[in-house]
Amino acid sequence: MTMAHTLTPTADPATDIDDVARLVSPDGARVADPDLDRWIADVGVETIRGLYRDMALVRRIDAEGVALQRQGQLGLWAPCRGQEAVQVGTARALRADDFAFPSYREIGVNHVRGAKPADFVLAWRGESHSTYDPYEINTATPQIIIGAQSLHAVGYAMGIQRDGTDQVAAAYFGDGASSQGDVNEAMVFASSFRAPVVFVCTNNQWAISEPVTVQAKFPIAGRAPGFGIPSLRVDGNDVLACLAAMRWAVQNARAGGGPAFIEAVTYRMGPHTTSDDPTRYRDKEEVERWAARDPLARIEALLRAQDAFDEEFSRSVAAEADDLAAEVRAAAIGAKTLPPLSVLDHVYAEPHSGLEEQRRWFGAYLDGFADDEDGSGR
Q1: Is there a contact between 104 and 176 (Cβ–Cβ < 8 Å)?
Q2: 199-235: pLDDT as tens digits
Q3: For this structure, is 38 an active site residue?
Q4: Model confidence, pTM
Q5: Residue 134: is it exposed, middle or buried by C-beta count within 10 angstroms (0-12/13-18/19+)?
Q6: Which of 69, 81, 119, 354 is 20 to 30 A (C-alpha) from 165?
Q7: Number of H helices and number of E strands within the chain?
Q8: Can you give the C-alpha Rg of the chain in angstroms?
Q9: Catalytic residue at 352?
C-alpha cells in the first residue's frame, strides 16, 4: 500500500502552503481529497467535536505553561500554539499500545496519550527528569536532543518486529531536526529493515530563528522517497487531514508495509521557547497570515456550518479547559522539591558500586555548603 501526495519539485517549503493535502479549508469548508477521504469515512460530528475539544484543552494547557514560566514557577516552556491540529490529529490515529516518541513541544501528543496535569510542568520546573512512566501511557520521555527520538523510535519499531506483534512507533520532530544526522540515519535503518515506524515532521517554518527555507529548498516530504519511504505533505492546521494521513501511515506500517513519512505544514505562533523573542526575526504580516489559518477557528467554522457548535458546547469546553489549567497550575505551585541526592535515584534498576561512589562524593560536596555554627555559611 502506498500513497504520496503530488509534490511540486520547485515548491517553496514555506510559501507554497497550498501544495498540501487538506480536508478542511482555512475558512472551515469541507473539501474533498481522493487520497485522504477514505481514511476518515467513519468520522462524524461527535468525533470532530472531540478533536476540537482536545485542541482547545491543549491550547489552554499551553497558555497556562507560558503564564507559569513568566511568573517564575517554571524554568522554561516550549509553546505549541498553532500546532494543535498536527499533534492531536496524528496522536488520535494511534492505538493505545503503539509507542510515541515526542520532542519537547508535543503537548498535544502527551495530552492525547493520557498525561496527567503534573506531567506537563514538573520537568520544566526542574523537579524531575521524567514526570510520567513511559510505559503507563506508551509515550517516551520528551526528547530535548534535536532529532534523537527518531533513532529511538526506529529501534523500538525493530523490537516490535522481533516480538512479532503489530504495534507501531511514531517519531515526532520539527523541520529543523530534519537537518540532523540522527533523523536521516533513522530513515536509513527504517527503510532497510522495513520497520513499523511513522515519521511525523512538524514543519512550523522556524527552527528557533532560522527559517525553513535555509535548510530545505524543496518540501521536506520530498526527501523521504529517496530513502524508499512513501510520504505525504498535509495541511498541518487541518486536524482532519492530520488524522487521515496518520491513519494511512499507521495502517501501512501495521500491515507490514514499512515506514511512512508525514510533513505537516503549520506555524509556530509563539516563541521557540519562553527564552526567545520571535519579533526579532519574524515580521508581523507573516504571523497575521498564519493566524488566519488557526486550526481551532477552522474546525469551529466547520462545526457551526453543521449546526454542531453552540454556546452550550463552547461553554462546556471552556469550563473543562479552565479546570484542567487550574490542575496544571496547582501541580506546579504545589510541587515539592526533592533532596539533591535524589538526582541519583532510578539511574540503574539494580544497585551499582559506581553510583554509590558518586552518591558519597555528591553528599560530601553538598555538606560543604552547610552553615557553620554562627550561621554565616562561610
Answers
A1: no
A2: 999 999 999 999 999 989 999 999 999 999 999 999 9
A3: no
A4: 0.92
A5: middle
A6: 119
A7: 12, 7
A8: 22
A9: no
